[in-house]
Amino acid sequence: MKKILIAILVLAAAVSCNKENDFKQEEVTASFTFEFPEVAQTKAYSDGKTAKELHYAVYDGRTGNFLFGTTSPVAIDITTSVNIGLVKGYPYDIVFWAQAEGVDYYKFDKSAKTITVNNYTTDANDEKRDAFYQKVENYYYTSTPTTVKLYRPFAQINFLAKDYSAAQGMIGNTMKSKIKIKGLPNVLNVMTGEATGSIDADFKSTSVPAVKGEKMDSYPSYGYVSMNYVLAHKEKDNFTTDLFGIFYMNENPITLTVQNVPYQRNFRTNIIGSFFTGTGSFTVQIVPTYDPSGDHIVNH
What we know:
This protein is mostly beta strands.
């Protein structure tokens, strides 16, 4: 797994926390190094490079109360430094959230301690939905930089067509795709990491990734015809309803229904089959490209 390293210093003009008399009131500058996981793929999907905005929230480590955070996002890239002031000897919980620039797919409510998915109704196959999160718990200032590994709170749901080349030969580069799923969680508690709520996904169809030349290194001979991010639980779970992959070939829809589809946070679910020229037989895999754990494979 290739890691994008971003060194970030943390500063603030003032610290709006309750300063008790039982510790030394000395403001200091804390240093953090961030690692964004990168998936080995031949193109841009899941390379982590769309996360250009950093948001953070600082909480009282003793009471859990929100203290302060970003009022506007901090632009980040490979070499960016950002600064936050803390009080020496005081415990903090710090939440970091990185997303694409200018998108409104998610709302980080720092006081409510939640990140909410606003909708799943915009363009399918959109890499700008990729985002990263981490909580640093019980942090005390140290002069040594702290490494924070940011992970996706999402599962990536993919369709890979064994027969894409045959279908493309008949229709050319006009194929579009989207997915529909009911009852997805849509609220992430940044303190506990739990995903709750319920929202339906019905994306707008867009050109399939394969049309743009997107491939997965693990499956170079398959057409990568759908890619979408959805908020997922920490542990492996199954969608509570069927997953519908809808493909438009010369504007004519083909709907594939897949049942009992597993998904998991920071993992990919790959649905592999001959979707366009054969019978509906699928192989469903949970692939740990975002996490070092073992494979989960379910055959259908």
